[in-house]
Amino acid sequence: MISNVYSVPFAEITVAAEQDLITVLAGATDGFWVLRAWLANVDVETNEQIALSIHRTSTTGSAGAAVTPAVFDPRSEAFPGTARRNDTTRGTISGISLLPDGAANLSGWLWVPTPEERIWVQAGVTNRIVFGLETATPASMVMSGGLLIGT
After folding, report:
1. How many distinct structural domains can be found in the chain?
2. Which domain holds residue 41?
3. CATH of the domain at 62
4. Selection from 148, 147, 149 nearest residue 20 by Cα
5. What is the pLDDT along the chain (151 residues), one digit of tens a residue?
6. Which of 6, 50, 131, 148 could covalently link to 22 via disulfide, CB atoms 3.0 to 4.6 Å apart?
7. End-to-end CA distance of the chain, in Å?
């Protein structure tokens, strides 16, 4: 049963190249579920196809920034792991992509899995999940998006 829900967003970030949009690392003793993922175009008026994926990595990317997962219920504890956004130096994918997909940037992208489709990330500080932009965009664009996770 999920007792705490957190948002790990990024807002109005310029993207142009492949990158790890969001990376979430589990805590030492707490795993988490990926409950939702979303991506929205903020400024481009020309339709472009973009490739996205949710996958596990064996390393964490760099050149981005730390982000604090926001708890939905203020009575809940802080997220026990860590998170990053917009790492342009990507982490190393381990195994296969769990959810390779594509989208038209004008319509945005939303993934809301059924309970059986949720992705579980085990406890342990080396366990992580990444929401990534898998191809360079034809032109830079400002985007917002993120992951909703639960413990």
Report:
1. 1
2. 5-150
3. 2.60.120
4. 147
5. 899 999 999 999 999 999 999 999 999 999 999 999 999 999 989 998 999 999 999 999 999 999 999 999 999 999 999 999 999 999 999 888 999 999 999 999 999 999 999 999 999 989 999 999 999 988 899 999 999 999 9
6. 131
7. 8
